[in-house]
Design brief:
Layout lengths: L1 H21 L21 E3 L2 E3 L2 E8 L2 E8 L2 E6 L6 H7 L6 H8 L7 E2 L4 E5 L6 H10 L15 E4 L10 H18 L2 E4 L3 H7 L8 H9 L4 H4 L5 H6 L5 E4 L2 E4 L5 H5 L4 H12 L4 H6 L1 H7 L18 H11 L3 E4 L8 E3 L4 E3 L12 E5 L2 E5 L5 E3 L1
Parallel strand pairs: 6-10, 7-8, 8-9, 11-12, 12-14
Antiparallel strand pairs: 1-2, 3-4, 4-5, 7-15, 10-11, 13-14, 15-16, 16-17
Bound molecules: zinc ion.
The site of zinc ion (ZN) has 7 residues, from helix 6.
Length: 385
Amino acid sequence: MKVLFKKAILFLIGILIVLGCYSINPNDKLLESNNPETGETFESSFFGKKSITDGPYIFYENDQVKVKWIYRNREVERTIKGDNFNIIKRKFGFEFKKAWIDQNKADSINYIQNFSGVKNLIAISDVHGQYEVFIKLLKEHGIIDKHFNWIFGKGHLVVLGDIMDRGPRVTETFWLIYKLEQQAKQAGGMVHFILGNHELMVLNNDIRYINEKYIESAQRMNTTYSQIYSENSFLGKWLRKKPVVITINDMLFVHAGISTEFINKGFTVKDANSIFIHKIVGKSWDSILKDSTLSFMMDDKGPIWFRGYFIDNRLKESEIDSILHYFDKTRILVGHTSLPNITLLYHGKVFGIDSNIKEGDYGEVLIYENGTFYRGTLLGGRIKF
Ligand code: ZN
């Protein structure tokens, strides 16, 4: 009898353990919405293995448009018939407009990237897949409303590169930036996305830093992560027209920095953008390394890797003056080198914008309003420079 009782108890414990394993994860109800517009989460675990949902990824295949995504570790693929993009709305809560398909193909490239008369501007850098921090900052500082729509009017939002790598929510961040770019245009404002070294790495098939989730995504889609952003993909096509340097009013924006060597070689903003867009982005390392101009652009004195405003052998202030004089600007704004806060260097001539968002727990934006600069904190505070 005693033995039987023991067996019954063990059996019951066994049942409870099994039930525990199968029990519904509190996040499961959110799995349908890997949602760029709500920021809902989407990961759960099943027998300790992470279940991922990722996408949407949109591809131009011959004359067709295909949407692919990962749902609970499995690839799903749909060919879009007519203008039936509702599937994206249904699965991701994200309103994809059919007009974007043709428009993204047709958009011309702006190499000169010179804008003036801008009164309100916000800059953010090195988000690295930390979507929650990104949307919190955008909400707190009046760029988006609670439905993730543009409310910044004629303002300009500058995203200074490195959305990719490290963090787990790169896809959602890109879709939100794309959507805001379209909404801003209609409102008379603008979103500028500038390429960082991590976009270049992924597009050139260097995936050392991608989040493990995206290794899984690529495997499930039977491809490589770089191919997900190929020129036949919607986001890949969009990224391939993006600049590395832009100027707004008296400010020059570049992901990492402009070195003395860069100006000594006589490059202009237009040269740099044109070289990156046509000869570097998505091209093989062999072709880049063979050419001295291309390898210069991709090395540590080039605009996407340079750290000479921050570390040993820092540039002298007179060298910063020469660079500013060369471009006829008064400030350079860069990301790439992580700092605890947005930081002013060289008596206000250089702003370091990378406020370490990559850690996922804090971040800042730089606010420019009618000639005055502020640090915008995560909770919506403003600190005047
Ligand atoms: Zn960087």
